[in-house]
Amino acid sequence: MTTAFYSARVEYALHTLLNLSLVHAGAAPSATELAEFQHLPLMYVRKLLTQLEKSGLVTATEGVRGGWRLARDPNSISVLEIAEAARGNEGPLFQCQEIRARCALWPRSDPPRQAVTGVCSIHAVMIAAGAAMRRELASHTLADLNARVRAKSSRAWRADVESWFADRYKRRRRRSA
Q1: What is the spatial distance between Cα 6 and Cα 47, in angstroms, rounded to a whole number?
Q2: Over the stretch 114-169, which tens digit does the pLDDT of each residue have?
């Protein structure tokens, strides 16, 4: 079993925001529609949207025409922001346990000073790796992801996505009229 640095919640957040960036500008998908589109549990998507709203990435409107929209232009939303918003307070990507202070060659209570002075060499590498990953994620925007998806998708698929959300939006409006 492998453990991911970023949980499935980050992937779901990225897909949810990508879907919001793909819908027609006039539509505002509901949490139900966003969950249904990706076959995700509704309660999970609601919690995720609330978390993304607190981070300033999406806004909610109430009523018949209500739903979820991006709070900002996709060009100004970085993948790093989305990942951090979805991760919440999960803590750092690497947590040094100071294993270097525990070695069979010296008593636990008295490791040599040079063994425990400064940042652990392993921790330093992990800090650098984390910084490189953050830089890479920050260098991509939601608009970049949207462009990649559009470039590899057919026009028919793109039209189907817009139509799928637009049809559900229209149905909601008709039901309440």
Answers
A1: 17
A2: 778 888 888 899 889 989 999 999 999 999 999 999 999 998 998 999 999 988 88
The distance from CA 139 to its chain's CA centroid, rounded to whole angstroms, is 15
- β-strand partners of 58: 70
**d(C-alpha 22, C-alpha 10), whole Å:** 18
Tell me if residue 15 falls in helix, strand or coil: helix
Query: In angstroms, rounded to a whole number, what is the distance separating the alpha carbons of residues 114 and 105?
Result: 14
DSSP 176: H
* Element of type H or E holding 103: none
Q: 120-136 burial, b for 16+ CB within 10 Å, e for fewer? A: beebeebbeeeeeeeee
Contact 23, 29 (CB under 8 A): yes
User: Which H or E run includes 116?
Assistant: helix 113-116
**Token match 């609330």: residue?**
50
For 112, the enclosing helix (H) or strand (E) is: none
* Domains detected in the chain: 8-91+141-176 (1.10.10.10)
Angle between helical axes of 31-38 and 155-176 (0-180°, round to 10): 140
